[in-house]
Amino acid sequence: MGQDKMTVGLVYGGKSGEHEVSLQTAFAVMGAFDYNKYEIIPFFITKKGEWRVGGRLSAPLASLDKLKLEHGAGDTSAAVQLLFSGLSGSGKGLDVVFPLLHGTNGEDGTIQGLFEMANLPYVGAGVLASAAGMDKVVMKKLFADAGLDQCKYCYFTSSSWERNSHEHLQAVEDELGYPCFVKPANLGSSVGISKASNREELIQAIQYAFRYDLKVIVEEFVDAREIEVGILGNEEPLASVPGEIVSSSEYYDYTAKYLDGKSQMIIPAELDTELAERVRELGIKAFKSIEGSGLCRADFFVRRDNGVILINEVNTMPGFTPFSMYPLLWRETGVSYAALLDRLLGLAIERFEARQNLEFENGVQ
Ligand SMILES: Nc1ncnc2c1ncn2[C@@H]1O[C@H](COP(=O)(O)OP(=O)(O)O)[C@@H](O)[C@H]1O
Ligand SMILES: [Mg+2]
């Protein structure tokens, strides 16, 4: 009977600020699988970036600590060998991989590239969409191209800042004014982000953001409700009901997101039907604009003064514990956590198969 089950490689941990969150997600996901249908092979990536691979599981591991695979696990080369087993002719060890990683190296196209090289189906966005969804500037250019409204912004690299800081400050003041938001272009979880209300604060905020990235984006401040929607699918994606984030602090910073537990998620968001429908449509548009696949969470600002809907960002690997916005939005829409896992694995296989028959060489045989 074992052969009928699908083998899922669950990849979690990672050399990232969201290592612990990823472990919690993996523990929840592992507990929610239907083990009549799936077998799991756990792949843990340590904070140093080393891999550990465990044996085939037909039941979840008993504790979060066990997910670190301390005893008897295979090392990085064993993990890589297993990932590439379908290519090396040593028998296909995995049917699909499910990366539960956030941020750098997990959500930015790098690990997706590894799975592409190994010719493995994987859950979620491909290389391009992952990379685009990680870079706030590239993302904004794609949104603009799709005709989505967004806040005004400027951006510059650190070398350009070194050379022309005065011009950049002037441009921010002329085009955006105060207050404004300063962000590293490529991080998530509100890391490196600050609000500036005058030139002195702006300079500090820019210097701070450059500690985290070589490219910084500055945005006009928008006084808005934060509305998020879950997207699920490939070519014809569906949108969940929208939810609202009510932050415990002035804005949704790292503390408000992860530490104080006081921020609220209101699901579904209290929006009139027309506005809710519009947000769902725009969420799908945002997903398509980055060429998403599988899943994403699209985050919007709805201006308090005039109700205009602005896209803020998309997350191609949104928080995925059972208490995170994305799964809760789908639960409210009628898709349980376990059903969501089924659907995501199905979408990974569909995307893989659709690409299998593509030709990669020019010529007639
Ligand atoms: N332009 C802006 N105007 C007002 N608030 C903002 C703006 N940009 C970000 N914020 C606040 O900062 C939070 C984090 O910014 P965001 O761009 O979503 O970064 P991250 O990728 O880290 O989630 C948002 O959830 C929101 O509360
Ligand atoms: Mg955000």
TrEMBL record:
InterPro entries: ATP-grasp, ATP_grasp_subdomain_1, D-Ala_lig_Van_CS, D_ala_D_ala, Dala_Dala_lig_C, Dala_Dala_lig_N, PreATP-grasp_dom_sf
PROSITE patterns named among the record's database cross-references: ATP_GRASP, DALA_DALA_LIGASE_1, DALA_DALA_LIGASE_2
Catalytic activity: 2 D-alanine + ATP = D-alanyl-D-alanine + ADP + phosphate + H(+)
Keyword field contains GTP-binding: no
Subcellular location(s) of the protein: Cytoplasm
Enzyme class, first EC level, given as a word: ligase
Entry's EC annotation: 6.3.2.4
Keywords associated with the record: ATP-binding, Cell shape, Cell wall biogenesis/degradation, Cytoplasm, Ligase, Magnesium, Manganese, Metal-binding, Nucleotide-binding, Peptidoglycan synthesis
Signal peptide stretch: none
Cofactors demanded by this protein: Mn(2+); Mg(2+)
Pathway: Cell wall biogenesis; peptidoglycan biosynthesis
ATP-grasp domain boundaries: 140-346
A Pfam short name: Dala_Dala_lig_C
GO molecular function: ligase activity
Function in brief: Cell wall formation.
Family: Belongs to the D-alanine--D-alanine ligase family.
Entry protein name: D-alanine--D-alanine ligase
Gene source species: Paenibacillus physcomitrellae
Gene assigned in the entry: ddlB
